[in-house]
Design brief:
mainly alpha; 55% helix; 134 residues
């Protein structure tokens, strides 16, 4: 899935800004990456950045279940550009990087089941109702 986005501390640094078109899922699921962005921002000041990294990885898995791998890749890369918009984040990136060194995290073997279930209860990824055309 979006493992390459999260592999080896991908969330430690800002994503590179690239020019691209918006994925088609934006119209139907405009808020699909909102929780992901909040978690990425939370990680910068969290007492245990590795714990939040696991939440971030599971959130990526959750988004992928709704949008599919290709759409998720585009949406989460864009979300990282949004989440890391401040220059002062560079010190926090270093702290997060040190906290993640040598840690092995993943989404297999039902690791994310409870985190995804909790997120689905509190912040479900649902399509927006489209206005009917006259």
């Amino acid at each position: 899935m979006a493992g390459f986005l999260f592999a080896s501390g991908a969330c430690k640094r800002p994503a590179h800004k690239t020019e691209h078109t918006l994925p088609h899922s934006v119209a139907h699921y405009p808020h699909a990456a909102d929780r992901f962005i909040l978690l990425v921002r939370k990680q910068l000041t969290a007492p245990d950045p590795a714990e939040v990294e696991q939440e971030i990885m599971c959130e990526g898995e959750r988004v992928s279940r709704v949008l599919g791998d290709a759409e998720t890749s585009i949406r989460l890369r864009s979300a990282l550009d949004t989440a890391y918009s401040r220059r002062v984040d560079s010190l926090a990136f270093q702290r997060v990087g040190r906290a993640l060194e040598g840690r092995v995290l993943g989404t297999g073997d039902h690791v994310c089941d409870s985190l995804i279930a909790a997120a689905d209860r509190t912040d479900p990824i649902v399509p927006v109702r489209q206005q009917e055309r006259p």
